[in-house]
Design goal:
heterodimer, A: alpha/beta, Rossmann fold, six-stranded mixed β-sheet, 21 helices, globular, B: mainly alpha, 2 domains, two-stranded antiparallel ribbon, 2 strands, about 70% helix, flat
């Protein structure tokens, strides 16, 4: 269906080849997963398929790509619209119209498809993706998962032969992600659709993949079955790390297969799991009877919470459950409708300037919102000046977090992980007592994530800071958090030790816990230490 | 209730009203036309984010009147007449002869500038009325193929506006949380970067969905230019011929909307 013959790609003003002599054939009805570190060219590879690269972005392309027999060199992306549906990283950025129904029809209108056919196809898609209740809704009011489904729908409605998705689940909670992926799985099996996906969170997609393309960012690409690639890949989901840690010869990629292979392990007797001991300091934040309204809508209802020094707290819940609203209320951006938030007896809304920097460090969903300098060095110097610390301190902090960033790089040219590290070091240079992060792992690869985990753990354990993060990433929570708060539609539904909260909900359980249930292990490390202590 | 009239009708309507206001050059007439236009907008607009444009345009209009009056009264050549207040004249260098700042404020001068301000503001508000009634996106879809590049640019520009406002608020918040003072530059740089990235995304999305590849577009919800549209347009032409017919143009859509309302109630 898709053929890459001897494809090389290089962008102008860049010395690095994105792809070099890639030859690859994707058959009809295959689900192919593209993996690689951030900035390695996964998006470029996907956009090569319908010719957005190089028609839209520039760049020098050698070799030829053809889809269903049509070479992308000869037609523009629009000319392939009836064959390829493409869904970008941020679906809302690609929406052209105002409502769900209009958005679904947009592509068909441009291809001049008869109105009767359009109506029939729109109805089909609304049913297939369970979008019917949303048909007249304004696109801007949809939740992340709903937006993703509309974007997939508006690609599918053109009856494409190929569907290309760039990180379709990165912004979604585990349940919404599961919904989207199972729809894709069904389409591949029922309609023989060819699907190409790029994704960082392998634990979510790997069991659906027929083949994997692994690119390393230096121009090299490996193509193989998931089992082949996973046997030695550095990018691997927890299930593979578990198999490696247990020394298994065969690598299973689904929870079901892995449970079969590990039956003896699970059923053996173990000493009761001793929770990791660490000290919790004094109470630092208190929320009392917090209620928050946006207009008529109640987004938080009667929330009572207390946070302590040295705690790492993860706030979880579905898209739109009120996680970000709670964080914003704690930092003093939102004014509570009733009830109050206090940080060491101070109302956070009254903090500003230096006092704010030293009390709360906040990393927003888009870390680049914080950055305005023209180079990494300028950004770091601003941090030094703001906090009246020795010049070079912030940059030293950054080099510690992520070594090897050139001080003259523009923040925009950094990879997602590097940009987060820069924002983090600017914030940490003020030595805040509380560190708050909103969705920090969006778009981060495994390596950047483990860097982040190490940094945050050090903040909490060594410097006794309070770390609060809102996230969908259960694997991150399992590795990092000591306590989990679960919100549902503005209500606090669970608040407890990570292990208790995560194990009590199958949808929000990490992969290792699903495999090893009923043993109370969340991470590969837990399993290994239990094996050793036996 | 949605504005099921053809998007072009609404634009012809609001533009002719603006022409009428400019031609009649009568602030009282302008105020009445704006008032009736508000009634039409109130009844016929839908729930799109755009439908609030009228209110924004109205606020902008008031701002225009205030600024225009202030400058008109303080700066310019004196007009003789009834003096309201005598302000001191600001001494200016010789080479700026003919320009006077301060001095006597006469009733004639105040009314003159108010008059001009109201006419300017009304024109802006009437454009706001047009935008309230039809999403620019909807207008885009009835544009002919020949100006597709133009349509692409307009869609991107218009989808960026609400987005722009949201982004500014978000970036301001982030800067405030970093303990920074409000600064134009610190908001502008991240904003520009994000907007550029977003417009490229949108252009890529429209391109990959075949925008501009076919000469003819089909319509999912056909919006036809029917007899009512034609009647409203005819009334609008009358308003251009003589501004005092503009009430007819203003009232024409009300007539049809009103009839529908009554029919719906019965």
């Amino acid at each position: 269906m898709i053929t890459f013959s001897d494809v090389s790609l290089i962008y102008p003003n860049s010395t690095r080849t994105v792809l070099e002599n890639l030859t690859l054939t994707i058959e009809e009805g295959e689900l192919v997963l593209v993996i690689g570190p951030t900035g390695s060219g996964k998006s470029s590879l996907l956009r090569l398929i319908n010719g957005l690269v190089p028609h839209h972005t520039g760049g020098i392309l050698a070799g030829d790509i053809s889809v269903d027999g049509i070479s992308t060199q000869l037609v523009k992306p629009g000319g392939l619209a009836h064959i390829i549906g493409i869904v970008g990283q941020n679906p809302i950025h690609g929406f052209v119209t105002d409502t769900v129904e209009e958005e679904l029809a947009f592509g068909m209108e441009t291809l001049n498809i008869a109105p009767e056919i359009m109506r029939k196809r729109v109805e089909e898609i609304l049913d297939l993706l369970s979008l019917a209740p949303l048909r007249n809704r304004s696109l801007s009011t949809l939740s992340g998962g709903e937006q993703q489904r509309v974007a997939i729908g508006s690609a599918l409605v053109m009856h494409p032969k190929v569907l290309v998705l760039d990180e379709p689940t990165s912004a979604l909670d585990p349940i919404a992600a599961e919904e989207v992926l199972s729809i894709l799985h069904r389409l591949v099996h029922d309609l023989g659709l060819t699907v190409v996906i790029a994704e960082h969170k392998l634990e979510r997609v790997i069991q659906f993949a027929d083949r994997i393309v692994h690119i390393d960012g230096l121009g090299n690409a490996r193509v193989g079955t998931p089992a082949q690639i996973m046997s030695d890949s550095d990018i691997a989901p927890p299930i593979v790390h578990l198999a490696r840690a247990l020394g298994m010869k065969e690598i299973a990629l689904s929870v079901r297969d892995m449970r079969r292979l590990s039956e003896d392990l699970r059923n053996a007797q173990y000493l009761p799991h001793a929770a990791e001991e660490f000290e919790i300091g004094n109470q630092i934040i208190s929320c009392a009877k917090l209620t928050l309204n946006y207009g008529e809508k109640e987004v938080l209802r009667n929330i009572n919470l207390a946070f302590h020094e040295g705690e790492v707290i993860a706030i979880m819940g579905r898209n739109g459950a009120g996680k970000s609203s709670l964080l914003k209320t704690i930092v003093g951006l939102n004014t509570a409708h009733s009830g109050k938030v206090q940080i060491r007896e101070i109302n956070p809304a009254t903090l500003s300037g230096g006092a704010r920097r030293q009390t709360i460090g906040f990393i927003p969903q888009e870390p680049s919102d914080l950055l305005y300098g023209q180079s990494v060095l300028m950004e770091c110097q601003q941090g030094d000046r703001d906090n009246e610390i020795a010049s070079g301190t912030t940059f030293a902090l950054l080099s510690e977090l992520v070594p090897g960033i050139s001080p003259h790089t523009h923040p925009r040219d950094l990879s997602e992980g590097q940009r987060l590290a820069l924002a983090l070091s600017v914030v940490l240079s003020a030595q805040p007592e509380i560190l708050i992060l909103d969705e920090p792992t969006r778009g981060l690869d495994y390596q950047a994530k483990s860097h982040l985990i190490a940094t945050l753990l050090r903040c909490a354990r060594v410097f006794k800071r309070t770390v609060i993060l809102a996230t969908h990433d259960v694997e991150l929570v399992a590795e990092l958090a000591s306590r989990v708060i679960f919100l549902a539609d503005g209500d606090l539904v669970a608040d407890g030790a990570t292990i208790d909260v995560l194990l009590s909900s199958p949808a929000f359980a990490p992969q290792v816990a699903k495999i090893m249930s009923p043993q109370p292990w969340l991470t590969v490390k837990d399993v290994v230490s239990a094996m050793e202590s036996r | 209730m949605t504005s099921l009239r053809h998007p072009l009708t609404w634009w012809i309507w609001s533009i002719t009203l603006a022409i009428a206001v400019a031609r009649a050059n009568n602030p009282w007439l302008a105020a009445v036309i704006v008032g009736v236009a508000y009634l039409v907008v109130r009844t016929a607009r839908d729930n799109a984010p755009w439908s609030r444009s009228f209110e924004s345009a109205f606020k902008l209009g008031i701002f225009i009147v205030l600024v225009r009056t202030l400058f008109g009264v303080l700066i310019g050549t004196p007009i003789p007449g009834t003096i309201i207040v005598q302000l001191p004249v600001l001494p200016l260098p010789d080479w700026m002869a003919g320009i006077r700042v301060g001095g006597a404020i006469t009733q004639e001068r105040l009314f003159g500038t108010l008059h001009e301000g109201i006419i300017m503001a009304s024109i802006v508000i009437l454009f706001g009325a047009g935008a309230s009634l039809t999403s620019p996106h909807r207008l885009l879809r009835v544009l002919p193929f020949a100006i597709y590049q133009f349509g692409l640019a307009i869609t991107i520009a218009t989808s960026l506006v609400p987005q722009f406002i949201a982004s500014i608020a978000r970036i301001r918040e982030a800067q405030f949380l970093r303990g920074q003072k409000k600064s134009f530059k610190r908001t502008l740089i991240p904003l520009m970067e994000e907007s550029l990235a977003r417009s490229l995304d949108l252009a890529a999305s429209m391109d990959s969905r075949g925008y501009g590849t076919h000469r003819i577009r089909s319509r999912y919800r056909a919006v036809t230019f029917d007899a009512i549209d034609l009647t409203i347009t005819a009334f609008c032409l009358l308003a251009i011929i003589s501004p005092y017919f503009s009430f007819a143009a203003v009232a024409a859509p009300l007539l049809f909307i009103g009839r529908k309302r009554i029919a719906a109630m019965a």
